[in-house]
Amino acid sequence: MMNRITELFSIKFPLIQAGMIWCSDWKLASAVSNSGGLGIIGSGSMYPEVLDAQIIKCKNATSKPFAVNLPMLYPDIDKHIATIIKHNVPIVFTSAGNPKTWTKHLKDHGIIVVHVVSSLKFALKAQDAGVDAIVAEGFEAGGHNGRDETTTLCLLPMIAGALKIPLIAAGGIGTGRGMLAAMNLGADGVQIGSRFVASSESSAHEKFKNRVVEAKEGDTELTLKEITPVRLIKNDFYFQLKEAYSKGATTDELKQLLGRGRAKKGMFEGDMEDGELEIGQISGLIEKVQPAAEIIEEILSEYSKALEEQKTKKFKF
Fold first, then answer.
1. Cα–Cα distance measured from residue 141 to residue 123, given in angstroms and rounded to the nearest whole number
2. What is each CA distance from 49 to 45, 52, 79, 83, in whole angstroms?
3. CB 233 within 8 A of CB 211
């Protein structure tokens, strides 16, 4: 499956595991990389010394390329970048901020830079900033999301026709057929998050993994657009938000209700009612917790089968 993404990252398959806070530490990243994809350490929830240790452990667990996801709003971003450079991490995925700020600095140190966007406007800005590839993330995605609610189905062809650099699709992708659909729409690869939350190696709490498996259609909703848009599983905290909205809560009141550490409380510590449970709409198709290698094998097998059916026009649903 050689293409622009596999060549750029020196990986076997154009399948990337998203860098998710509280869910993607070195165990998951190394497992995905060892299986031929690109694993990503989600640094947004880590203190600088924790990221340092995570990178060392990942390098000891895999000889394959891996990446670090770096939210641009992270308060100690300069320390994270220094750690990444010190350990010669080959690839960085930036998100939630202006890619111009650090792209040149990272590339001057030989690091491949990928930026996550949710619109054509920001994809073009990121390309102009000199990034090496783009992740286009649709409305279906878990975690922080775009305010315009543009779906992956619409977003991909808009961006694919305007970019000169490789494009990675994200949002609502968790199967081989979904991967093929994204490639048909112009993507060079896919980034998958929710499916890997429900992996054996994920650092998410077991209660959260099981809640993801239990999720059905309609069990998530994009909310908190006034602060940072995030897709949440509907639990007691979600319904507290709904009540606050119904009473006309201000942005400050919503921030107060959200508080600090809400995501850690839910996804990492296992409070399924009062915690923030971030996951994508694809959770409705996730049926069990599996090892990362098994997830990748299953997706690629389904992708190959669907591709053959497409070639012969023998679709089966």
1. 17
2. 12, 5, 9, 9
3. yes
For the record, the structure tokens of 28 come out as 């998951």
Residue 71 token pair: 């939210």
Of 57, 11, 46, nearest to 32 by C-alpha is 11
pLDDT digits (tens, 9 = 90+) for 11-48: 999 999 999 999 999 999 999 999 999 999 999 889 99
Asked if 269 and 276 touch (Cβ cutoff 8 Å), the reply is no
86 Cβ neighbours under 8 A, 6+ residues apart = 52
Tokens linked to 162: 């305007």
Q: Is the whole model's pTM more than 0.85, yes or no?
A: yes
Determine if residue 189 is left, alpha or beta; phi over 0 gives left, psi from -120 to 50 gives alpha, anything else beta: beta
Contacts of 164 (CB under 8 A, 6+ apart): 127
**237: which 2 tokens?**
């905290």
pLDDT in tens, 192-244: 999 999 999 999 999 999 999 999 999 999 999 888 888 999 999 999 999 99
For helices 48-61 and 77-86, angle between their N-to-C axes, nearest 10 degrees: 30
Q: CA 148, CA 84: separation in Å to the nearest integer?
A: 32
Short-list 148, 117, 150, 120, CA closest to 134: 117
Q: Listing from the earlier edge strand, what are the strands of the sheet with 220-223?
A: 143-144, 230-233, 220-223
Domains and CATH numbers, the chain: 4-203+288-308 (3.20.20.70), 206-282 (no CATH)
Sign of CA dihedral 62, 291, 137, 157: positive
Model confidence over 125-151: pLDDT tens digits? 999 999 999 999 999 998 777 778 899
Q: Which residues contact 154 (CB under 8 A, 6 or more apart)?
A: 138
Distance CA 39, CA 59 (A): 12
